[in-house]
């Protein structure tokens, strides 16, 4: 998009507030929707979206145009969401347990997601599940929380958390494979 490049250059060269506002307006709804799908909290999504655009403006002088601007902006958004979940995790609980065997299946799904670059599709698939299943998957994958931490926070048995987590991942994985093979 030529207009996008003009806005970026105007911000980089002249610190143009008008160009910054136009660039933010252009991407605001899309980034807000992305953040909301990760948090399911309107106020939090607004705050994080604002922080993402502040980070974007602070770092725009380092943007060289090698990757598409949208890709660069999504990297900032993903990093901010991960930081949010990690900071929340550290405030609530300081114990860390390394569960490599439990991590294996989620790593496979993450690899599949990254390989196919189908984050939106996976998020849409995740929306088919109830709130609790979505939160469990988000807390495990995005926040890196242990099953014990998730169980404590949601006040349910650890075995229930594991069952729901693996069941949800399996269904998402099956759906991804079906979509790839066109069944």
Automatic annotation (TrEMBL):
InterPro entries per the UniProt record, alphabetical: RNA_pol_sigma-70-like, RNA_pol_sigma-70_dom, RNA_pol_sigma70_r2, RNA_pol_sigma70_r4_t2, RNA_pol_sigma_r2, RNA_pol_sigma_r3/r4-like, WH-like_DNA-bd_sf
Pfam families, alphabetized: Sigma70_r2, Sigma70_r4_2
Keywords: Sigma factor, Transcription, Transcription regulation
Keyword Mitochondrion on entry: no
Ranges for domain RNA polymerase sigma factor 70 region 4 type: 121-171
Protein origin, superkingdom: Bacteria
Residue stretches making up the RNA polymerase sigma-70 region domain: 23-88
Family: Belongs to the sigma-70 factor family. ECF subfamily.
Protein name stated in the entry: Sigma-70 family RNA polymerase sigma factor
Species of the source: Aeribacillus composti
């Amino acid at each position: 998009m030529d207009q996008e490049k003009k806005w970026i250059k105007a911000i980089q060269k002249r610190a143009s507030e008008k160009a910054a506002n136009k660039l933010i307006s252009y991407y605001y709804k899309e980034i807000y929707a992305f953040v909301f799908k990760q948090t399911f909290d309107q106020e939090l999504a607004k705050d994080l979206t604002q922080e993402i655009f502040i980070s974007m403006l602070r770092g725009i002088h380092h943007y060289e145009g090698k990757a598409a601007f949208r890709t660069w902006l999504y990297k900032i958004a993903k990093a901010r969401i991960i930081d949010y979940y990690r900071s929340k995790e550290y405030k609530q609980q300081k114990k860390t347990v390394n569960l490599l065997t439990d991590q294996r299946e989620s790593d496979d799904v993450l690899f599949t997601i990254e390989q196919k670059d189908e984050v939106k599709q996976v998020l849409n698939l995740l929306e088919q599940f109830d709130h609790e299943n979505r939160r469990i998957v988000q807390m495990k994958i995005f926040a890196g929380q242990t099953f014990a931490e998730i169980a404590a926070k949601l006040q349910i048995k650890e075995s229930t958390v594991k069952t729901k987590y693996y069941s949800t991942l399996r269904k998402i994985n099956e759906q991804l494979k079906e979509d790839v093979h066109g069944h």
